[in-house]
Amino acid sequence: MVIRDGDTIAAIATAPGDSGIGIVRLSGPEAISIAESIFESISGSPLGDLPDRRLNYGYVKDPTSGERVDEVLVAAMRAPRTYTREDMVEINCHGGSVPLKKVMALVVDKGARVAEPGEFTKRAFLNGRIDLSQAEAVIDIINSKSEMGLRTAMSQLDGGLSRRLGVIKEKLLAMMARIEASIDFPEHDIEEITREALEHGAKETVDMLERLIATASSGKLVREGLKTAIVGKPNVGKSSLLNALLRENRAIVTDVPGTTRDIIEEYINIKGVPLRIMDTAGIRETEDIVEKIGVEKTKEYLDRADLILFVLDAARPISEEDRTIFEIIQGKRVIVLINKTDLKVEIDMGEIEEAFRDKPVIPMSLLKDEGLDTLEEKIHDMVFSGQVRSSDPVMVTNVRHEDCLKRARKSLLEAIESIDAGLPLDLISIDIKESMEALGEITGESITEEIVDRIFHDFCIGK
User: Rounded to two decimals, what is the model's pTM?
Assistant: First the structure.
């Protein structure tokens, strides 16, 4: 979407539902005049004459009927020192749906257009106030599920990723300048030196890109949450584990096998890692039609899970039901939990260690609150694997960014191959330019309108 001249947009910027305050936001060349036409200041002055960036008390009034619609506070903000770099107005109404809808109807009647999803942030990008990676950070802040996710998104909004990419692009520009100098001044016989410098610079840049790419798997989990399934046969303590992790009694816990018949889903935060955790139906052969459906749904979810917490009963020997689960979860990321270690241990630990040689096995007693800290530490370690330092919040959290970085790396590796093969410098420059363009797609310097539209389509209306 291209911003049309004279196009002023409006939207309700606060979430649906009753609240103390609701905000109607306008942006565009007519924002102040449209708001002025429905705003009656308590001082009697027109909105355009009132101080910039201050809340002004008064009423929204229907110009046709003269009826007062709501008691409000209105702030006018003049370009370019605004979120969108356009004139903006925010009308702070009471938060009920009726006054907000009425105010929206009045501003639309006076010439505003209802904003598309993310259009305010899109205008901030198109008008050069933020780059595309910063714009994407806005929705990450809104959707953050943990303190680490919020901190990472805030770093990106502050330009952390953009600055890191800027350093890489400066190195690529320096490489291009060397190529141009060598091509323009062949009489100086500097091609051999240029090739050595290019190869050195390309390898350094590839290392920088790989360090960023290495954060992508952890970054996506911080952003989206780790899909985690609690699995095991009935009555081993799956629901007790969920309650212990949540620190509340969310799932029903009984001694009756088959109590959990549907998948219970909750978000929890473990040492900065958001977990979208599922307490699943116990896997066993059953004639109960409802329980059977729950077991099938459990098996389907296991296929999509990022992490499986496999709970076994230490007080019972390994059964065929346990061995069936062994088979189902082979090849997946698993933590094995041996629950009820406060009772006499009957389970064959040798068989467990043989079946899960490369997987963490944690003894625990949920009844005595033992082993939970070890589990939480292991989840944190498995997610980050030492790749992410708490002092460095710059992380790749976006699949689109990861793809662009990988394409940039691929182009540079091809440039290195071309240098080693003795190909002409102008051919090598093509690979370096492609690397720069791939990085430019992250910040929006080289990107199509179609991709921009798709990115902002995922935003909420009003932001």
Answer: 0.75
